[in-house]
Design a protein that fits this description.
With about 100 residues, this protein is mainly α. It has helices at about 1-25, 30-50, 55-80, 85-104.
Length: about 100
């Protein structure tokens, strides 16, 4: 169950990272409230997952999910570059996440 909670926490991290773009420096009320709510929920769920998972592993997986998802949404929503090197580096992060899951 801790891994599922950690996965959802990572998805929420993607939500707040992408949401930051829409807050326009926290000047837009609805995106700001949604982003702050996602931040709190993400960190709260990370804290729950840390009850059972090693801290270093959980934190690395949480940030890895956030980094991969945010990069993917940046490419999809905001036209960030999708170069071979960039996609390859994102793949390395995914490999690291899978590796940490396999050894934990």
């Amino acid at each position: 169950m801790a891994w599922f909670i950690l996965f959802v926490a990572g998805l929420l991290e993607i939500g707040w990272a992408v949401g930051l773009k829409y807050t326009e420096g926290f000047t837009k009320r609805v995106p700001s409230v949604l982003t702050l709510t996602s931040m709190a929920a993400s960190v709260g769920m990370l804290a729950l997952a840390l009850k059972e998972l090693p801290m270093g592993t959980a934190y690395a997986v949480w940030t890895g999910i956030g980094a991969v998802g945010t990069a993917a949404f940046g490419i999809y929503l905001f036209g960030d570059p999708a170069t071979v090197a960039r996609i390859g580096c994102i793949g390395l992060i995914v490999a690291g996440i899978v590796g940490l899951k396999l050894v934990s």
